[in-house]
Specification:
Chain lengths: ~300, ~350
Amino acid sequence: MSFVDYLDPLVSAVLLAGIYAAMSIGMTVIYGVMKIVNLAHAGFMMMGAYFVYELFERFHLNPVLGASLALPVFFLFGMAVYWLLVQWLPKSDQPTLSSLLLMFGFWLVLQNVALLIWKNEDRSIFTPMTFSVIRLGPVTIPKVRLIVFVAAVVSVIVLQIVLRRSWYGRAVRALIQNPYAAKIAGVDDRRTAMLSFGVGTAFAGFAGALLALLYSFSPDFGRPFLLRSFVIIVLGGLESFSGVAVGALVLALVEQFSIFIPGVDASYQPAITYGLLVVVLLVLPKGIAGLLEKKWRVA
Amino acid sequence: MKPSLLRYGKLALPFLVLMAFLILPRVRDDQDLIRILFATFVWTIAGIAWNIIGGFTGQVSFGFAVFYGLGAYTAALLINAGRNPYFAFLGAAGIAMLASFLVGLPTFRLRGPYFAIATIGVTEAVRVIMSNVSFTGGASGYRITEYGPFRQNEHYYQALVILALAVAISALVAYSRFGLALRAIKQDQDAAAHLGVNPYAFKLWAHAIAAALTGVAGALHARYNIYLDPSGGPGGVFAFQTGISILLIPVIGGIGTVWGPVLGGAVVGVVEEWFTVKFPSIHLLLYGALLIVIVLLEPDGLVGLLHRLAKLFRRRREDTGGPRADKVLWGRSRLEGREL
């Protein structure tokens, strides 16, 4: 095989990594600030997909515009969920079983609500751009994937800027580094937690809306993406924002190139992904960010 | 009533319930009722098993569908090979135990949320592999052919006996030195290690016992249902949802108690087998709402609720064990704020 044969999967891996990063970063924000492994992430993604679907079907709104509209809507939705449920959880600086179960319960509720409204059938969004491609030499890129990639990357970069420059971002990073010291220094942890839950939910909804452009969806839509988000944030070290980008890229590359492993059927590909999760947990429990940190400390 | 009499009554109650279930098929010959009870017993066995590692030892696993499914498939293969079904149950327990070591040896090196997350990965990986291997028919499922007449009561009694066994094992674990070590690991792994408990070995063995019991539950399910579905959808033996239903049983009943999973099993069994049939469109909603209510209002589950009710009627306030004792000692209940 020549280099060109590897170029196509490489390009699609990079395009995939963009949307993977956008869908995982919300989970990292929530985990970092509240130490909640948000299982309802999948439910929010599914709701995002249906949100953009409804806007598209009813008002013929451009799906990318619809996806951006999902950001503020799901931000408010997430804050409401926090106010209604999450804030009553016992506080802890470690993930607790009760937080896992609460979010799982909420996911089930979301799933059932979607089942009641949209029934258990696959839906998809077709636009004129769904089937058009861009040719760049030997590589063909589906237009819709490129648009999704750009939207996802822009959103992640904007979030990065907010986290680096704003007062809210400083509070988030302080709470991640040392929650006690942050509180002593005057960080309002409840307010930050509420905003962070909103941000996490907003990104879940946004990513779900973008994914709806690429895949068909049903009320069970988020599950495989939830597991991928796990793999990504574990690869990234759970609390590191730049780690998410690296984790997303690694996972996308593994997924795209696992078909080249000789003797392994393509249908085993998901097993490789989940196997990767276990292996990474064992070898690099602090993720790639932890590895880099260790290197720096030695140097 | 004198407290001693009350205590005897408490001790005798499980045996009375057991007797009632033993004579039930003779009194009422209701096929559907027996079916629901059978399924409830199977769920309860798996729930009791989960509680040994998840409740007593505090190692939350989302991956019990692996053992349930492997037990089911092992029993199915053995029965199809013409073996005695009871031998098949033993085989299921053995294979599930083996699998528990394969899962546990690497993952118990992890602490905190990592073990729980790793079990999610393991379940999905095993499901994908089992939907693709050829000797069990892959994704199209596996059918069991057993010769001889189908006797529902035989299945019922099988499940009842194994359930009684599971409760006995759970009680033995809870009140033995082994169980004490498990609780010590749950409360503070480092302190337990300093006192001479090897957390790694104890976790492995607790996991193995739990897996063996879950494997038998899967085998019971397989022999009764005849057809095994490896898919990720509802009813699939390897489905993530199956692992969750197993986990819900002790959570609903009262995590880390002997009788919690039994009560929880009754609730989940009835919801799964009766509610799902009656109201198929809202049973997820019911589960979700139940979970949210339990987590936020009564983290000790049904057992905690019963203790609270009993306290209302009791004049003397001293607490004799039970979930509240943990709260006195550790300032938090079993579920609430507990670290993974």
